[in-house]
Amino acid sequence: MINKSRLIYRIEGIVQGVGFRPFVYTIASRYSLHGFVLNNAKGVVIEVEGFKESLDAFEQALFKELPPLARIDFWSKELMACRGNMAFEIRHSDEANTKSSPVLPDMSICKECLDELKDPHNRRYHYFFTNCTNCGPRYSIIKTVPYDRPYTSMQPFVMCEECHNEYTNPLDRRYHAQPISCSKCGPTLSLCSINGELLTTNEEAIVQLAKLINTGHIVAMKGMGGFHLMCDATQDDVVANLRERKHRPSKPFAVMFKNLEAIKEECVLSVQEEEGVSSLLRPIVLVKRNAKASKISPLIAPRIDRLGVFLPYTPLHVILFEYLKNPIVATSANRSGEPIISDANVLKEKLKDVVEYYLDYNREIVNSSDDSVLQYIGDKTLLMRSSRGIAPQSFRVDSKDERKILAVGAHQKNAIAIYLNHQIIVSPYIGDLDNIASNELFEKMIESFARFYDFTPDLIVGDLHPNYVSTQWAKKQNIPFMQVQHHYAHILSTMCEHKLSEPVLGIAWDGTGYGDDGTIWGGEFLLCNQERYERVISFESFLLLGGDASIKEIKRILASLLWDTLGDDADVHLLNYFDEKSLKLLKQIYTKQINSPRCSSVGRLFDAVAVLCGMEGNVSYDGESGLLLEALYDASIHEYYAIEIDDKIVHYKPMFVQMLKDKEPHLIATKFINTLVQIALRVSTRYSLPIVLSGGVFQNRTLMEKLLQNVTQNFYFPLQLAINDGGICVGQIYKVLEK
Ligand code: ZN
Ligand code: ZN
Ligand code: FE
Questions:
Q1: Which residues have their alpha-adjacent CB atom under 5 A from ion ligand 2?
Q2: Residue 174: which of 183, 166, 162 has the closest Cα?
Q3: How many CB atoms lie within 10 A of CB 619?
Q4: What is the pLDDT of residues 137-169, one digit of tens each?
Q5: Which CATH architecture fits 189-373?
Q6: How far is the CA of 159 from the centre of ligand 2 (A)?
Q7: pTM, full prediction
Q8: Rounded to the nearest 10 degrees, how much is the dihedral formed by the CA atoms of 670, 675, 677, 681?
Q9: Which ligand is nearest to the CA of 182?
Q10: What is the architecture of the domain spanning 376-499+722-736?
């Protein structure tokens, strides 16, 4: 007994619901240690007793062999008196106390489950809901914490004896895997026509659904976080039909492929992109299309050279692909602009004119989520939508602040975040808060987070914009509310992610954000630290003719810019884009400045340039102009346009006159992007500070690649948070956190 000692470990991070306790049990048993492991409010407590060498070996294994989904953020160790336990045991959670452990995102099927799914001798062969502790649903099925079967939508399904044995055996991969089930005891699939007629069930439903897709039907399938609309991605008439029924003229559709090889037939992937697409997160990755003839319909992503690709991520998707002939369109089932639909009754009501058949199952999706979307810049990720597989996302911050803080985000691509117990937890993507369904989801998200974390905020933070739905909601709560300027919050979110507290030069370029002076900003150089910011340089402003009308009808922006530069001489050029009558009307709006706010947004400049490059009509989705210009970009051209930067203002308007002379779209697009790089570089060199980038404009991969190649200072952009308005909520919290 003399040589034995006892240690107590306190561990915080992602250590609950990820097989952490059985993992500890396994390694403690391996080294013949006695004691126990227990979940508590903050994470996990381990007490181990044994010989010193064994304790050392245990500690090594503890950090080296973590289960795939586990993450240790913080730990401590203390020596204590021996208790003389005779065994090692997993003790039961103290239920009342587990409310700050993060609710984890849904995960795609793991390798071991996939092998079982394909093994005819396994009892889960072709079982469409197979999962284990290392994979499967979490966020989508949880009603409240602790994450335990009775509090999930698996509650109605009673485990069969075999499943129960696995569930209760600490050495089994499915020990405490809450959604555990098998074909005997799990949920049922059903294939229905959109008027609700049941056609068939289970495996046969998958076979028939595949047949419908193969023969050119538009269907819906309930996936992990909601329904996908699906159709064959190679049949032009079917894709055209889907576009028409969805009233979605040009926004690209994501395409799901059977495997990596199938993606490579259509696209060129870097090593990082291959790894990203195949990772357990299974995001949609935007990749370059192969220039050669393609099987994929050109209507999938008109006029751009990218394709959003992803792989099957649930067992159900994997089995479906065994019966499909081709890659498929798999896009969130929703009405344009609204959140993803996760309930068949809503689907039948809202998409009866779009969908002909749907595959449903009788387990409720409690919390919906979309597919996450990202792209790669070399080996770095640029996150555009944080949802399934990634969110809810939690990370620890260095702050003494003991308050509970809610950040309500911005307006577009809204996501919320909370701060409690030294961690920030960010919600999945909610959407643009400009329809009732999205606004309802926004409120539901806040309620769910309140329930998951027993959370009532001491303080709410939001955007400066007085008319944002999020701002207005916050003002009604009778809780102290603080507003943070939009672009400052963009930069702060990146600073928070990279743990930067020293002053930085923030470059915030995006579409829209409410400025301190009441005008619209979006081309900003901000000197920032965590306390304050100064708008040191910004793009020269212009009139957004007719306000929102300019954002839809982008040639209005070109008109405004050309009139500013050329006066009446601009008319002759503008008559290429407007008929005489509407030009005259627009000019009146311009001269009298009717309903035309001032704007300094770089996002809007992309729109004007896109018009000069031949983009006709209206912008039909956010970022369309940028993607169009990227498709025209010619890397062999290094020229850029002349611009002037004085003490406060970037004077770029004469650039548009130069563009009129260039005429060639690829030349204009290339020189424009090169010019933006020059502007960023020239301003950056005036300050010997770290450069921090954020804002929707930087979703432009070409622009980012050029910047990365040329900036010589320390350079940061968000890698874990969305670079667009989705990341704003974290910046709002970072502003108010006590150091
Ligand atoms: Zn698994
Ligand atoms: Zn079972
Ligand atoms: Fe923004």
A1: 160, 163, 182, 184-185
A2: 166
A3: 19
A4: 999 999 988 888 999 999 999 999 999 999 999
A5: Alpha-Beta Complex (3.90)
A6: 5
A7: 0.95
A8: 160
A9: 2
A10: 2-Layer Sandwich (3.30)
